[in-house]
Target: STAS domain-containing protein
Amino acid sequence: MDLHTDGPTLVLVGHFHGRSTDHVRSALRARLDAPEHEIVVDLTAVDSVDVPALRVLAFASHDALRTGHHVVLRGCGPAVLRMLHLTRLMRFVEVEQQAA
Model:
């Protein structure tokens, strides 16, 4: 999985699995220390995701709220949305609404 930043946006590309969670967790922590209050995680180019990866996003959302920040997931494709619903982690994250 590749990760790059675009301002307050973290852009993830490829397969977001447990092996890449440390890299994403570190990037999210760095964003929580930044002055921007909204952190966007762009998942548009994520091909697949597993439960440990989604937990990282859910915990980051929780930590963000405690520090006055806000994490939004952008570009969640069908595979990501399906996993969020199956794991019931959807209730812990905010998914940006896509234009119809």
Summary: Residues 51-66 form the longest helix (16 residues). The CA atoms of residues 51 and 87 lie 7 Å apart. The mean pLDDT is 92. The first strand starts at residue 2 and ends at 6.
